[in-house]
């Protein structure tokens, strides 16, 4: 048999084991080529948000290189190790390590670059679809065109060729270090069957570390931390505790719990227990690091996608909170010019005018912060915006009382207020005490007046008293223009954008679109990176279970000869796959939940709907790899006889 025939025979023989690897490589190369094509597409210049389109896609493509590179190197290491017996037999029949290396390199070259070319063609076809998806997300009305980028092709070939070179370097080192005897043993790994008290200590430590990380994360942005340095130390502790705790959980807790379960059953195990519980007990230590990495990667992917979706999902609500009308002005002449333009185009509206004063306010007695001396401002003389209750049209504040409204969620985490107390406003150099009656969420004036701090609402009589003695420069006005027919909002916004104003003027629609463009672009990039995380981590677990199934094939043969049916064996297989794929997923979901919950308020106004949506989609996609693994083991069981 010549080398050429042997080469193609090996490819044909092993292609059934490589199909998911081929899919992952095809998906990764298609996604990378599409990203790089978008990077060189001039249509991204239409995005004029806070994040440049090409820069965001470029950053995403660089992270994608790291994800794909690590996955391909790891998958290559698994496959070369699984073929240890084959390589040893080739050496026994007289082939040198050099010859075997070039044979493997040629085999990988054909498989790798054949898949890469198909992936590039798929990426080229998908690039227009990705551009259409991006334009839809960021609400830009442009036509996506299908164009082939020579620059993107060259960059893709260079990147994947570098990865291929590293893969061949790993194979070369593997062949040089291994002897024939060690190659025969390369897929045989055993663990100690003894479960000691140390496992209980390690497992308990893992649970304690994870729990402490979760506990601190719930108070991460509260007023408990007295310095920025303390905050960063808390973040570092959470990260380290959760990751190390996850590793110890897989290394000690699982084995010990399964040991207790087996002891409780007195050693009498069903066939399902043998195929699931026993296998898990004595392979857990060797798989602890891999499962920790998969869990961490899943948590990072779910967390980042959730936060980006929270930002995008909350864009409209954030715009409503920041701009208290469809159009808001701080100059009466600007407002008059704009309303005249609306009338000339037959656009109906109503106008609200709210007088605003900036008054030094003592909030020290209602601020729910234990140590106020470390704050970066003076709570006893904080300048707050003050309006009258009659200007709101909804609130009725009694004389001698004060109500706060329009407080941003992220500031509420750092500076919580009590439910009642005393607030004092400055009038002609003396402080007037008022009874604080609570906080409302409604926003009546623009963020230019408040910068996230609450607005003080008092009765009209008290407001008029303060107006008489206050510095004229502290007097301001908020003019809100509300359209009576929301279908005219686009025409009105076009008029607004064409006009120039002497003072600050805001459009709620323009702000919403700006935030959707910025956060939509980030969500687009992060989502596809998360998809790459999902595919690579799922494939790695699948490959690992594929190898474990091949090792257990003789056991399946024995059990089938003893009379156990295919359905008998599949019950234990399903339980084992449910654990291997389910536990990292559940821990990843838990980690991401506490991570997102600790700081979601920096990104938007809504937590549950975006986060649960992302978690549900990720769970469904991730579960597909578990289903594929069960199908692969089902095939092994059928071939066992």
Automatic annotation (TrEMBL):
Topology with respect to the bilayer: Multi-pass membrane protein
Transmembrane segments: 20-40, 60-79, 100-126, 152-174, 195-216, 228-250, 288-312, 519-543, 578-596, 608-628
PANTHER family: ABC TRANSPORTER PERMEASE, ABC TRANSPORTER PERMEASE-RELATED-RELATED
GO cellular component: plasma membrane
Keyword Protein biosynthesis listed: no
Descriptive protein name: FtsX-like permease family protein
Similarity section: Belongs to the ABC-4 integral membrane protein family.
GO annotation (BP), single: transmembrane transport
Top-rank taxon: Bacteria
Species: Geobacillus kaustophilus
One Pfam family from the record: FtsX
Keyword entries, A-Z: Cell membrane, Membrane, Transmembrane, Transmembrane helix, Transport
Domain ABC3 transporter permease C-terminal: from-to ranges: 61-165
Main location per the UniProt record: membrane
Intracellular or extracellular location(s): Cell membrane
